[in-house]
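Chains adopt folds. We examine one example:
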Amino acid sequence: MEVKKIVEGMTAVEVAEVIDSNFRGIKEETDAKLSELDSEVNGETENIEVKEVLKSSVINTSGVISSVADAKYKVYVYNVVNGEVYRLFNKTSNVGSVQRLSIAAYNELDELVEVIASWPTSNSIGDDNLIREIEYKVPSGVSVIKMGNLSGEQQVSQLLKKGITHEIDDIQEDVKNNSLRIENLESLEREQKISKIFNPYNDLRKDSLKVLHIGNSFMNGSLVYLNDLINAADIDVSNMCLYACYRGGGSFKSWVDCWNDLDTDSYSVSKRIGGIVQNITGSSGANNGEMFRNTIKNNRWDYIIIQQASAYANDYSVWETESDGGYLVELIRLLKIYQPQATIGYNMVHSSPRDNSDLLIGFNNIANATKRLKENYGIDFIIPYGAAIQNIRLSNIASNTSKGFCKDGHHLARGVGNYVASATYFQSLFAPRYGVSIWRNTFRAEVTSEDLSDVAYPSDVIPVTDDNVRQCQMAAVLACCNMWTAINPDNIAYTFD
């Protein structure tokens, strides 16, 4: 098709007409290709994998698509006004809201950039509900009407670097050659940094905050005293919620299998903190991921926290494989497709005596794996409770323990173990939201006879008292300041008035 240019001196109406003309041409062209592709893969086993490629292309632009409810086609026009760059959202000729963009990101755009991004909202390829996005760089001097309010600078320079998505022609050729395999998807992700470039930022202090944690028993261990700490801090959490998807021993792969009705273990979804009620429906159980799918699909989450099973948490090399410790890419892809606006976080677990003969070496391996995750996927919201546990293991409180505050050589024990983990969770999520630090929190964790009933190592169950609470809270604070190195809280000078 012939692409019309936007030139200096055009009015806003003329610019809109050029955009609309080009847009309609691209729509007709791509619709024809998608229709042809649909007929070719109809009834073939490769159909699902083709959908995955189409879905993966969306991940690259998910950061700038926050709502797709009422728009099938989106056009962005960039204009420079008095040295500032504005992105105008144009919906088939109607100029809409304005976003301010950094000069660096703007300069990375070509004179004319066309981006065709597909957003499957149904189960058929080529469906009418595909969204295309086109971006134009407007020459200086073009008269474009600015409407709406500035929404704040968008940090999208990294996203724009890889703005051109996978061409439909290439997908079509892959289908013809019967060559769509998982290796192709991984190669595509490495080439375009799909899901490894943009992790949206959400303000923890926003009016209403909705958090979902997808985890296992180590997640539960980090939440044991969280409500107690919140109550002691006199925090009103009615304007937020924390939901937990729990599956014993759950790994990245476990939750991908659950999504596909392939996980033979049971799981649950429940609200743990807050006053906001989410829409949790459907049945759950072995080989039944309905409730998990509905939790992701039918709600809007601001933060989704994931974590790896302890057996694999210390070995990043398996996370992106197809082994039992793998499927990180597949899990992130699911979350990106259905919750593109959500910030993905990570719960950094403790070094377990069962999985690590040397707890400090185990922690260092877990920290290195977490660092790799942060570097490769932009996941920088991390709850480093594992670092806090390693900190407290260096203190004099641990001198008489045998398993590093683990009641069974694996799970954290009541008292100091669970307290330090919950304190770190509090300091990571609730302290920045409400401006209340864990430091000087008045809650103390007593140990009851019930807490000792299922304990293999009683010496690891130590109550939190006025005598040791400073070290416990300092261990959490230190971890949130530096999660990569274990620090003995006994060596830190502080006051606790």
